[in-house]
Each structure stands twice: as C-alpha cells, then as structure tokens.
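Tokens in:
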C-alpha cells in the first residue's frame, strides 16, 4: 500500500460542482445556473481581447499595473493596494494560504460561498460555520463563534446563493468586534448590482483588518477569462503578492478586464436591466407560490416548500430547456437558485413555472 498521503484536510474537500451547462438531447438550453450576465461581455472588452490576441506569444505583465490603475481610477482606490487574481477565488485561496494553517480557524456563514470551506481545508485550517438568521448574515452569531484561533472571517455581501445583504453599520460592527490578529474578508462578487455600493472599500480604508474581493465574472460578463481582484491594507497586499504566481493572469484576461472596468455605461445598463427583471422574476415566482428573500444580486433563491418540490421543479424546467441551480450543497435543499436573465428569459421561466404550478 502506498505511503504517499496528501496534506491533512485535502481529502475532506468535496469537489466543487459548478452550475449545469447542458441538457441531454437539447442543443441550446437556457443556462440560468451560474449567475452569468445574459448579455455577455461588453463590446469594448471583446474588442480589447481581439486586439490582444496577436501578442499571445509574449508573457503578460507580472505586476498588472495597467489593470490595477484602471480599477483604481474607476473606483477611486489606491492601485498599490490592489491585487489581481484568477477570479476572486484565487484571492480567497491566497488569503487562506497566507494567513491560515493547521491549528487555525476560518469562519464563514452557513449559506456562504463553498470556496471558503474548500480554501480553508486546502490550507490545513479548520472551517467553522456560523448560523444565519433566516438566510441573512447574523453578526452576533459570527462573533459568538470567534475564538483565539480564528484568523479569517468571510462574508459575501450580497451573499450567494441567498441574495441577501447586511448594511454597512453591521459590517463595521463585525470588523470592530474581531480580535486584532483576525482579518474580515468582504466578498463583493455581486457588489456592482447594488447601485452606489462600494463593496466595503471605505471600511478597508478606515481599518487595518478588512479585505475586499471583487470579480469580473458577473456583471462584466468575463467569467471565461477568470479575473478577480482584492483591495486591502498595503501590508496584506505585500503578503499576498509573495504567494501569487508571477504570470497568474493572461495577456487576454488583462486586456479584457481593463476595457471592461472602464466601460461604465455598459455596467450601468446591465445593472438597470437586472434590477427590473429581478423584480419581475421574484414577483412572478411569488405569485405562483414560490417566494424568495429580497435579492441584491443577479439571481433569486426561490423557496419551493420541500426538497421533493425543488427537485421536481428543476426537472420540469430542464424538460423545458431551462437550467437552474439546486443548492442542497449550500444547506438549502428546498430551494432553487435562478439567475436573472433578459426580459425574454424571465418570460420563459415564468411561463414554464406556470405550467409546473398547474401540474402540482
């Protein structure tokens, strides 16, 4: 028998399952399972990637200076306090790799993003779960579970898959309540869908124990390029850059992301459409007997009543050529998560679910 063994924690990791992308026998299903922008990337991002394609034989920038400068300019942030990664997932991995290990604890909420647990285990740390209050982050419950071993606390705001959000005062109270040797990480993957929201950037500026992560995979429509970024105190950025690979982002990814972040008109358009269609989808599903909490993301989480009904609805929608997301892996077996699509996409979902409601 082999004596080769992985590091402790690795075999406890359940393989991450992304949203489904295909249905047997259907050529072009409507994919509403991964919270992707239904309009895809903006035209400026597409043009920038096409223009950069001829330079694929050259190594990309190691410091991402142009992209960091663009992010800083658009968001009013110090570029020297920005780090870029392969999606915000990689920034989460860097944080666990750099600040947590055997004997340490990484804390997150019960319906939080699965990568928090995965990255904690990969670093050899112990994941700890705090309960939520009716699918909303509960600051007191988090603070109750903080110990002398807690090194990182992750919250997504807005949260995935619930879509719920807590206010800035509560986030600040959480940051103030953590021990001096613990970082609060604000995952802002869906921050751009909240009009006027800075994702927690001001709190990062005002404290030395807060980190913000963001992504280009959602409202910017660049999930296939895999670009994310983080904003943190300079000391934290210095640490994270020591574990970051020198060429972690490709030339195409850098070009596309820089053009995307500067195309603020496209972002504004996508946000406006999402807000209108999210309201319509949520109201339509509620009228059919499937309510959801107020969502601040580009998806809604419908409560179907029980696990059997959620599974039946998923199967019914697949039969209609529509892919949504079952979220039992997030501790929500009685729910389905539906990405907000275009106006036509929402109509198609509601028409399909009207048939399901009639059948039940």
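Residues out:
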């Amino acid at each position: 028998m082999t004596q080769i063994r992985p590091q402790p924690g690795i075999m406890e990791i359940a393989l991450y399952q992304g949203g489904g992308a295909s249905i047997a026998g259907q050529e072009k299903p409507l994919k509403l399972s991964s919270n992707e922008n239904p309009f895809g990337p903006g035209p400026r991002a597409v043009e920038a990637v096409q223009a950069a394609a001829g330079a694929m034989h050259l190594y990309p920038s190691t410091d991402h200076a142009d992209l960091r400068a663009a992010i800083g300019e658009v968001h009013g942030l110090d570029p020297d306090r920005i780090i870029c990664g392969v999606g915000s997932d990689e920034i989460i991995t860097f944080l666990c790799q750099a600040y947590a290990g055997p004997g340490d604890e990484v804390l997150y909420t019960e319906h939080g993003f699965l990568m928090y647990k995965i990255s904690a285990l990969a670093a050899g740390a112990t994941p700890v779960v705090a309960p939520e209050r009716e699918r909303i982050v509960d600051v007191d419950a988090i603070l109750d579970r903080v110990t002398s071993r807690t090194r990182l606390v992750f919250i997504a705001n807005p949260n995935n898959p619930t879509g719920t959000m807590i206010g800035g005062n509560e986030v600040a109270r959480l940051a103030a309540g953590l021990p001096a040797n613990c970082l609060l990480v604000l995952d802002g993957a869906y921050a751009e869908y909240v009009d006027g929201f800075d994702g927690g950037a001001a709190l990062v500026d005002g404290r030395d124990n807060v980190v913000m992560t963001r992504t280009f995979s959602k409202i910017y429509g660049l999930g296939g390029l895999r670009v994310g970024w983080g904003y943190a105190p300079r000391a934290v950025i210095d640490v994270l850059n020591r574990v970051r690979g020198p060429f972690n982002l490709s030339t195409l990814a850098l070009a596309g992301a820089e053009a995307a972040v500067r195309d603020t008109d496209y972002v504004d358009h996508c946000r406006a459409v999402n807000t209108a269609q999210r309201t319509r989808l949520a109201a339509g599903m509620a009228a059919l007997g499937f309510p959801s909490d107020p969502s601040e993301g580009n998806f809604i989480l419908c409560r179907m009543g029980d696990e059997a009904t959620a599974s039946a609805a998923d199967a019914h929608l697949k039969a209609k050529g529509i892919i949504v997301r079952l979220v039992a892996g997030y501790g929500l077996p009685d729910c389905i998560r539906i990405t907000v699509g275009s106006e036509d996409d929402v109509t198609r979902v509601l028409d399909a679910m009207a048939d399901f409601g009639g059948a039940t």
